[in-house]
Amino acid sequence: MPASKSKQSSSKESAPTQSRKRGDKVTPGNLFVLTGPSGVGKNTIIDRVLSEAGGLVESVSVTTRKQREGERDGVEYFFTDRESFEKMRGHNHFIESAEFAGNYYGTPRNWVEQRMKEGLDVVLVIEVQGAKQVKRHFPDAILIFLAPPSIHELEKRLRGRATEPEDVIAMRLDKAGQELKERDVFHYEVVNEDVDQAVNNVLSIVYAERCRIKP
Ligand code: 5GP
């Protein structure tokens, strides 16, 4: 199922994309990771970034979490069960995977590597443990930590979202406290106090990294 490319490429809206070519040579795309605690606004920010930055695509993860109302299989996630997930993980199907608040999440390897080969920049929107795995295996990946203005504000947003029962919110808040201590592992920090400003900051990072001279 996660191999369904047509679903994946049509899933997340982006401005018209184009591969970066120099003569006949395609320059491989960058790998961006947007990480940060649950509820900080990663999806809101990345949806806006995708609609403005051409040549950037978001990977669709596989998860064992229960599908929320309004979520579509193959769009927000590929939904699966634990047994199938473990099989995929055993077959090296994922670039990274993590267990978060009782559910598995993983990034499909083939789709991501293929898009980068085509010259597209790829962004993964994932939690902190997975981001650290990406850093280990893809030393050129660019890691952006999206931080809340404060833990109280994060709690307000998680409760306001009302997608999870109280015990799950408590678990996610506890996890957020640990994740906030790990920000030093990443290359950039963007504080999501004002959405427009956070979007601009992430876009600036994407554009700057495209201009960076690589060895
Ligand atoms: P949610 O259940 O709220 O959709 O996601 C929970 C957390 O898992 C969020 O922080 C989200 O960014 C993260 N996440 C989503 N997909 C992946 C993935 O493929 N790998 C990892 N490590 N985390 C993911």
CATH architecture name: 3-Layer(aba) Sandwich
Residue windows where pLDDT falls under 50 for at least 5 positions: 1-11
Number of helices: 8
Distance between the termini: 37 Å
Indicate the mean pLDDT: 90
Helix share bin? 40-55%
Overall shape: it is: globular
What's the oligomerization state?
A: single chain
Which superfamily, in CATH terms, is the homologous superfamily? P-loop containing nucleotide triphosphate hydrolases
Structural class: alpha/beta
Q: Care to count the β-strands? A: 11
The ordered string of helix (H) and strand (E) elements is: HEEEHEEEHEEHEHEHHEH
What is the third-level CATH name, the topology? Rossmann fold
**Any ligands, ions or cofactors bound here, and which?**
guanosine-5'-monophosphate
Largest sheet descriptor: 5 strands, parallel
- Share in β-strands: 15-25%
Strand order of the largest sheet: 4-9-3-10-11
CATH class call: Alpha Beta
